[in-house]
């Protein structure tokens, strides 16, 4: 029996912004059902890597394959079809604050709905049962018709997760999903993401600062330092020495003597 093809494959990928390298020579494969954490300090390239995995960014060199397709070779329509299979929970959440929760959850349908169906749904909400089911999964079904800006930060994070569940992708990417939450809410959200991945079999990839959650909630941890992969290891094999090296602060370079 042949092993499953990777959902994501990056081959000799580098990414620059202007002349500044964000990722350097990345080779990586992620398989169906894996839970993978990207860890590293700010500026290590975690968010850039996620943007390559959801097809919203193209590499400066190398190849990005999503669902066995080289995205650089796809026409815009085909690229959108691939992107519909990848759900992203953004750090800024990208919710419309003055809309009711059901409308933000239903945004997960926009890749499938026509313009007119989306417009009608803003007046007469469509797919109410689907939205309710997603909110049950994330634990806040009673918020279905609440205004989104009246929810707590943790509840808004759950709405963003429900939106991705409605999208029904094969993989979920989450960019720093707990960066703005207190410790108790952080634990709730990380437990929720892990449990949803286990229950649905969806691939889960998160960028995190919190190494303890990377170890406890994921099967595989990838450490990024200055745009390069420093380590790629099973969570149980990530040692204190590996973490120390990952977050080691470089001493300032001495200036040469002027003469």
UniProtKB/TrEMBL annotation:
It is an enzyme of class 3 (hydrolase). GO terms for cellular component: membrane. SMART domains: AAA (SM00382). This is Phosphonate-transporting ATPase. InterPro entries: AAA+_ATPase (IPR003593), ABC_transporter-like_ATP-bd (IPR003439), ABC_transporter-like_CS (IPR017871), ABC_transpr_PhnC (IPR012693), MetN_ABC_transporter-like (IPR050086), P-loop_NTPase (IPR027417). PROSITE patterns: ABC_TRANSPORTER_1, ABC_TRANSPORTER_2. Keywords: ATP-binding, Cell membrane, Hydrolase, Membrane, Nucleotide-binding, Phosphonate transport, Translocase, Transport. Its EC number is 3.6.3.28. One of its GO terms (molecular function) is ABC-type phosphonate transporter activity. Gene3D superfamilies: P-loop containing nucleotide triphosphate hydrolases (3.40.50.300). It holds the Pfam family ABC_tran. It comes from the Bacteria. Residues 8-251 form the ABC transporter domain. PANTHER family: AMINO ACID IMPORT ATP-BINDING PROTEIN (PTHR43166), PHOSPHONATES IMPORT ATP-BINDING PROTEIN PHNC (PTHR43166:SF6).
